[in-house]
Automatic annotation (TrEMBL):
Any one GO CC term of the record: nucleus
Family annotation (CDD domains): homeodomain (cd00086)
Chain segments carrying region Disordered: 1-27
SMART domains on file: HOX
Keywords attached to this entry: DNA-binding, Homeobox, Nucleus
PROSITE patterns the record matches: HOMEOBOX_2
Compartment(s) of residence: Nucleus
Record-linked SUPFAM superfamilies: Homeodomain-like
Official protein name in the record: Homeobox domain-containing protein
Annotated ranges, domain Homeobox: 19-79
Amino acid sequence: MTDFGEEPAGESSNLQKRSERDGQYHKYSMEQIQRLDAFFKKCPHPDEDQQKQLGREAGLDHMQVKFWFQNRRAQAKVILIS
């Protein structure tokens, strides 16, 4: 902190970035992961209606389901490549 009660510029911006990022992170429960993964095995590219329905069943927002599938497809691709 400086004499004026402010944080140095670098520290302030780092804390702000971290808090914004941390606020958006969602940890899925095992039941949610199992439900999403089972659906992924049947259909790795669900349409928007399927994502909304799956979100309601799993207690997730449509966008959380959308991004989970996007990340899971990327993870599956990496596994196939290596």
